[in-house]
Amino acid sequence: MTNTEAAVEVNGLGRTYAGGFEAVRDVSFRVERGEMFALLGTNGAGKTSTMELVEGLSAPSAGSVRVLGHNPFTERAKVRPKVGVMLQEGGFPQDLTAAETARMWAGTLSRPRPHGEVLELVGLDHRANTRVKQLSGGERRRLDLALALLGRPDVLFLDEPTTGLDPESRRNTWELIRGLLLDGVTVLLTTHYLEEAQELADRLAIMHRGRIVTTGSVSDVIAAHPARISFSADREVPALPGTRAVQRQGVRTTVHTGALQETLTALLVWAQQQDVVLHGLDAREASLEEAFLAIAQEAVA
Ligand SMILES: Nc1ncnc2c1ncn2[C@@H]1O[C@H](COP(=O)(O)OP(=O)(O)OP(=O)(O)O)[C@@H](O)[C@H]1O
Known about the structure:
Elements (H helix, E strand, L loop, with lengths): L7 E9 L5 E10 L4 E6 L5 H8 L7 E6 L8 H4 L3 E4 L11 H9 L8 H7 L15 H13 L5 E5 L7 H16 L3 E5 L3 H7 L2 E6 L2 E7 H6 L3 E6 L10 E7 L2 E6 L2 H15 L4 E6 L3 H13 L1
Parallel strand pairs: 3-7, 3-8, 5-6, 6-7
Antiparallel strand pairs: 1-2, 1-4, 8-9, 10-12, 10-13, 11-12
Helix pairs in contact: 3-4, 4-5
Adenosine-5'-triphosphate binds next to helix 1.
Organism: Lentzea tibetensis
Membrane topology: Peripheral membrane protein
Main location: membrane
């Protein structure tokens, strides 16, 4: 493998299920080594169907997938030792304890981390002797992640890794993922938590009905959507440069702008000159969530 080769390269990918339903259509993206790439989308958009092809669990109906330079389906033996996979549903034997599950899994790997170390990494060391069936949903999710990390993967596939986790466990998982990224691990993630993608991802793609409708860096995707300035004033505000839309609700005004700094400066200069107090002034870029909702609506329209 050369150093310029992507960790994951997907070209013109398609997946058609029995009965002819096309769940994935002409999907292409690259995940560079050491990068975190997030695959986002509405329910049923085709994220899991895409992830399963990248993980080599099925062969695509069209297009190609390379993971670390290999076809993950036909060259599974070459790819498998270097990747960690966290599926949406882990499905472990219910009567084993967390430690036994990790030990059993480690037995299938060539260079496993000590199982105690991975349980500690995901904050499950105090539950090591608890049977899987007695773990909470969030604890099982963390056990899934522990198993994905056991083989010291170069590439990690995470399908909704923090679903069902409480806010503190979610933040701890983010810290853990950040640490892995610092160590040079490549991460391909799907999530419904846009804050998670905004916090962690270098680049992302948004899928809708089997296709990628937007892709780019998090800041590029956000920058394409208007920023927002809101305030309450006892006087009507004049037209401000850069404004795309103005909403008024009672005394509260919200200005949507494509040029946050320019619009905000004009507003503040006007307020200063007119001696107007802007109560509750709040100015911010669009969040990834707002961008996502706008993109999903546009895609439906
Ligand atoms: N085995 C299957 N046979 C037929 N259709 C399937 C099969 N698996 C998934 N689908 C369909 O393919 C589409 C994409 O499903 P997929 O699970 O990939 O979406 P997703 O983006 O991961 O959704 P979610 O966010 O809800 O997990 C859905 O319409 C789903 O009903």
